[in-house]
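look at this:
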Amino acid sequence: MKRNLVTEPVGQNKLLEHKQRVAFHEAGHAAGIHLNNKARQLPAVFFKIIFKEMSSVTDHDVMAYETTHDDCIARVEGGRLIELLPPSIDSLVNKVTEHHSGMSELIKDYMVAFESDIVNLLIGPLAEAKHVADTDDEFFNHQIVNLKALKNYGGSSDLALAHEYLQSLSGDQEQKDAKLNELFTAAFDFVNKDENWLAISELANYILDGRKNIICCEDVIAVLDESVDYHHKRRRHGGRHHAQAEL
């Protein structure tokens, strides 16, 4: 995750703004890992969020985070369904089906996990972008925030890893670009969905509360699930209220 260089000294307000952006970024990744994977009926995977104490973050840390891939302020550790990428998905499929003729369902599940990992990478910078847009009272749409714009929201390393995944796919660069755009749209729609955005916001606030520097996946899942459950209950209650008003 890399940003443009900040040349002026970083004051407390700038530092707080930066930390808020990072919190939404990591909350987005975590929400993807839990909620997106769950929606795709994928297995749970271990992860944790590591976040530096506000008092320990220096101007140098912010500069380093904005100009390198060093996760000196925050990172999500773990969370990938596919840790070791094959040189070629086609060669992997051929090797598996060669020895196990009835493995088509397993291959299908693998591809769902493969694509979900990429979506979860893109959700992080998109969550940061939506936070910035909401804070600045600006529109958040595909025209303003596209794939190229993600580098402005700590997305350089996320995009680099997404491209690593795509190198395993067959096809020319145009086909790979089309697949990345398809997965970007899925990530954008995830972030823009009300219940997901509320869950990301709740988790970002939990991170910023600073009670823990290392937040385990059990705590993350509890915050996300509680937010989604609350949203569902409120929506059901609102629907009943509306129905009663029409009687």
